[in-house]
Structure formats: C-alpha cells, structure tokens
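Support request from a user on the community tier.

User writes: "When I paste my structure tokens into the form, the page sometimes reloads and wipes my input. The last time it worked, I copied everything first. Here is what I submitted, just in case something in the input itself triggers the reload:"
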C-alpha cells in the first residue's frame, strides 16, 4: 500500500478514498492498523464489497478519546457494525491497559462487544510502538504469531 496522504494528520475524508481507490483488497487481504489506522480499517470494512481474510487492530479505538472536545477526523460518527463484521473473516483487537492516549483495553472491549473476534489485552504495553512512550518497536513478534494463526 502506498503511503497514506498526510500520514501525520489522520483524516478519514482523505484516507478512506485513497485506500478504496488504490488498495488491492481481496479475500486473501489482511489489514493491520495501529492507533488511528484502526478506525480507518473499520471504515474500509464498512465500505467494501468483498470479504477480507483478517483485520488486526493494534492500540485501536472507535470513539473520541479523552476530554478533548475537538473532533477526531479519523472517526465516523457511527459505524454499521453488522456490515463491518460481514466483510472480514477474522478480526483481532490488541490493546493495553495503560495506553496513554486512551486507545486502551476499554476501547478494545468496546469494539469486541460490537464485532466479536478475538480481544487480546496486554499488560503494561502502553501504545505499542510509540516513540513518545519510549517503545520504538522495530519488531513486533507477537503480531507475527497472530498472522500465522
């Protein structure tokens, strides 16, 4: 997949059409999204006409985070959970109990309650790969294991 436009400023109005127009999505596709990539995956799954193999959402969220009142440009106001679930064979959520940006276990549980699949809660993993949380993952062996399941 080519680099998302404006990758440092998540914007569903830019990212979703880009993926839908440039992505090659089929029944063997596995989508992996970290942080704001997770609501993007939810939107992709809601807007495609093919059933993908798997989606893995790491440190994901589907609701506004924290007390910040400004809109999160990557979130939809609501999701068609049934349509999302119907467009993916398997869905996995990986969240931590101490994510400093609110992409925590409560968000993983919220999405899992709507979509089922597998919810994995990691103790003390923060935002899983964030330089700001002093976790610059160069490798993510746990994720590699999930890809083989």
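"...and here is what came back when it finally went through:"
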């Amino acid at each position: 997949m080519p680099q998302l436009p404006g990758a440092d400023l998540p914007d569903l109005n830019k990212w979703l059409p880009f993926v839908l127009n440039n992505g090659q999505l089929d029944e063997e596709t596995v989508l992996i999204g970290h942080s704001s990539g997770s609501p993007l995956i939810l939107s992709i799954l809601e807007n495609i006409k093919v059933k993908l193999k798997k989606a893995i959402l790491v440190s994901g969220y589907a609701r506004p985070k924290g007390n910040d009142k400004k809109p999160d440009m990557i979130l939809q106001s609501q999701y068609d959970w049934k349509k999302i679930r119907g467009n993916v064979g398997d869905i996995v959520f990986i969240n931590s109990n101490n994510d400093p940006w609110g992409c925590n276990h409560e968000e993983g549980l919220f999405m899992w309650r709507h979509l089922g699949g597998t919810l994995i809660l990691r103790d003390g993993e923060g935002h899983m790969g964030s330089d700001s949380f002093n976790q610059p993952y160069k490798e993510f062996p746990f994720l590699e294991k999930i890809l083989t399941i």
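Agent notes: The reload is a front-end session timeout and is unrelated to the input. Residues 26-64+71-147 form a domain with the Rossmann fold fold (CATH 3.40.50.1820). Helices lie at 12-22, 37-46, 81-86, 105-115, 141-147. Escalated to web team.
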